[in-house]
Amino acid sequence: MPEQKLATDVYFDLNDGHKIPALGLGTVPPEDKSAVRDQVITAVRSGYRHIDAAWYYGTEKYVGEALKVLFAEGYKREDLFITTKVWPSFHHSPEKSLDESLSELGIDYVDLFLQHWPVCLSGDENGLPAGPKNEDGSLKYDDDPVDGVKFLETYSKLEDLKATNKVRSIGVSNYSIPKLRKLLQNAKIIPVVNQIEYHPQLPQQDLVDFCAKHKILIEAYSPVGSTGAPVLKLPYINELAEKYGVSVNEIANAYHILQGRITLPRSSNLERIKTNVRLPQLTKDELDKLYQIGVENPTRYITDPWGYGLGFKWWKGDILSKEFD
Ligand code: NDP
């Protein structure tokens, strides 16, 4: 048997000169938020060097506790890659959001600061509530989610933060092509990444190509389709796992890493975190066949209400998505 390559050994170049580890650990909370502490510790001890955090997840305190333990064991801050994000209800004050995150994480800079969504929700000076509602139960916006351009002001504040010692790189998340077009007309700094839902059931070659043209790397979130891991039930993923003698999770990660995309799996199962680090060398034909699964039957699993109107393909009920269907 040839020696297995490891996903934890792969790094990609960002467009601003920094490097990013291809495999990152997601930190969306399980039922018990404090469990994230052991997840992060387990991941780093298993070779992960990339943690995907966010103010919105409410788990940064536990990521911070994990980092404290890891630093005491001799892991160095400069060897880890830590991301945080500014939430739409904090769109007016990304620096305040960042400062809160840094304080919870117990570090003095993040490697990557993302705009979580190109949307402006109506939060107070502390970004609260995170999901503001009108009386009729609809989301309370500070700007029109379809035609508004206020989201560009948030990114422009991220650009200012890149000039400080609190942030190494800046990027975006949940940007569709129409939103990216608007951004690129205004931006002084090209985002280093666009973090989006991506897996074999959600083909997005046009968005990937658009980002590649502008040297924006794709970060794949929900790489197994989030809770319940529906993507892992695909027969072809299971077939490949058997062929390569790896787990279905490792096939899902390899699908991205072998094509130059960062993958951000999450798990509350420590054994899963520990063992899912191999990188099976899928062939081009196999990668294409995985892609075709989504072309034939596209499925998006994350359809949070604040994503409505952003111009994403296959966003259930979104009028804008019709132009693509
Ligand atoms: P994933 O696609 O990684 O799915 C995680 C879920 O799949 C967990 O419930 C996990 O269960 C389950 N799972 C994984 N492997 C298996 C398996 N072999 N068998 C059964 N169940 C399995 O989910 P996320 O949606 O959390 O995405 C990952 C990360 O991406 C997030 O944590 C976050 O950091 C980021 N993200 C970013 C977003 C954004 O808007 N920018 C939106 C969503 C996510 P178990 O815990 O038992 O392993």
From TrEMBL:
InterPro entries: AKR (IPR020471), Aldo/ket_reductase_CS (IPR018170), NAD(P)_OxRdtase_dom_sf (IPR036812), NADP_OxRdtase_dom (IPR023210)
Chain sites annotated for binding substrate: H116
Catalytic EC class: oxidoreductase
Reaction(s) catalysed by this chain's protein: isatin + NADPH + H(+) = 3-hydroxyindolin-2-one + NADP(+); (R)-pantolactone + NADP(+) = 2-dehydropantolactone + NADPH + H(+)
E.C. numbers: 1.1.1.358
PANTHER family: ALDO/KETO REDUCTASE
Claim: Oxidoreductase is one of the keywords in the record: yes
Residues forming the catalytic site: Y57 (proton donor)
Protein known as: 2-dehydropantolactone reductase
Sorted UniProt keywords: Oxidoreductase
GO process terms (BP): ketone metabolic process
Gene Ontology molecular function, alphabetical: 2-dehydropantolactone reductase (A-specific) activity
Superkingdom of origin organism: Eukaryota
Sites marked Lowers pKa of active site Tyr: K85
The NADP-dependent oxidoreductase domain, residue ranges: 25-291
Gene3D superfamilies referenced in this protein's UniProt entry, alphabetically: NADP-dependent oxidoreductase domain
Organism: Debaryomyces fabryi
